[in-house]
Amino acid sequence: MIDDVNKYVVKKWRRVLFTLLSLLLYYFISFLLHPTSRYWQVFFTQSLPEMLFDIALTLLFCIAISWFSIILNSKLNKLLPWTEKTLKRSIVQSLLQITGVVIIIFFQIMIGSLFYDTDCESDPLCNFQDIWSWITGSIVIGLVISSINTGSYVIESWKKAAFEAAEEKLKAAEMKRAVTEAELNALKLQIDPHFVFNNLSVLSELILKDQKLGYEFSENFSKVYRYLLVNSRKDLIALSEELKFVQSYIFLLQNRIGLGVSFSINIDDAALPFYLPPLTLQLLIENALKHNQTTKSNPLKVNVYNEGANQLVVENTILPIQGDVHSSGTGLKNIIGRYTLLGIQPPLIVETHEVFKVVINLKA
Fold first, then answer.
1. Where are the beta strands (DSSP E) in the chain?
2. FRET partner for 245 with CA separation of 20 to 30 A, picked from 85, 112, 177, 251?
């Protein structure tokens, strides 16, 4: 609200200043072009009321020219910006400016004829040289105001471009930081001794018990690592690819945790071509496992499903671990930060006494 008021005040003051500048330029140019004209002879011999009346008419004329120039410049900035076709804009603006000034002069002459004697001996408007200097001065005034407006537009555009460039740099730096953080999380998962040891232990047991299942486990283990190595640097990945990775990740978890957790994935084919930041689902599943119990008697339930084609829901029951230390929520913060930097609406987190739900938006 304050910014709008400030803009309104600046706009009004700009018009006032342009009007005063037009008035001064008009008298200066007219006197400079023809200092001995009949207009100036008549002007300086008038009584004070007549002189003030003359100045008032001239002021109205200058208001018309300055406001016409401002409005013309504003409209052309939208219809034909300087940044797109500079030469065409210059020609169009100059022609319209001159045409507008000539029309304003015509109306000024019509109005002036109502107040001045039609006898050319006493009417400065009848003198060709006076009219020529008047037209020339008026066109110069219009072009000067137009040039000032153009200069102001160029400076504002430059400032805006510089600000946007700085904003983009900052956004890129933040994006790089978020991606680096995701890469570090992926790297931690790769070199985490507990993750590696637990899965290798499970693999050893499976090979001894069931070689076929052991082979499947090793295949999924390699798929998880391959996905982390190849895709952790990407900004976005297709949901179909992320789901393949999650299926392998879930396979490892189920063979390690057993019946302590159950997963349900129900996603329509229409949502598969949409995109999301890589590792999003893995981080949400990991977050659910980190803060909840996983017991056979009361297994943790994790559901992944879509709401429409462009929304995905990751939902888990709440089975808090006794004495669970409050988490900083790094995984969720990372996801929210990456969504924000990518220009996608951040995830919506809904928590009740029974369910923790994260609704994430997919990008087409």
1. 237-238, 261-266, 275-276, 300-306, 311-317, 348-351, 355-361
2. 177
Give the C-alpha separation, 121 to 344, whole Å: 75
Tokens 């039609």 correspond to what residue? 118
Q: How confident is the model over 61-87, as pLDDT tens digits?
A: 777 877 787 788 778 878 887 777 778
The pTM of this model reads 0.51
How far is Cα 261 from Cα 253, in angstroms, rounded to an integer? 9
Q: Of the ranges 7-21, 88-102, 245-259, which one carries the lowest mean pLDDT score? A: 7-21
Residue 306, beta-bridge partner list: 312
Contact of 106 with 114, CB cutoff 8 Å: no
For 205-228, write each residue's pLDDT tens digit: 888 788 888 888 889 988 888 887
SS3 183: helix
| Residue 282 · residue 311 · CB < 8 Å | no
pLDDT at 120 exceeding the cut of 70: no
What's the number of CA atoms in the CB half-sphere (13 Å) around residue 121?
Answer: 0
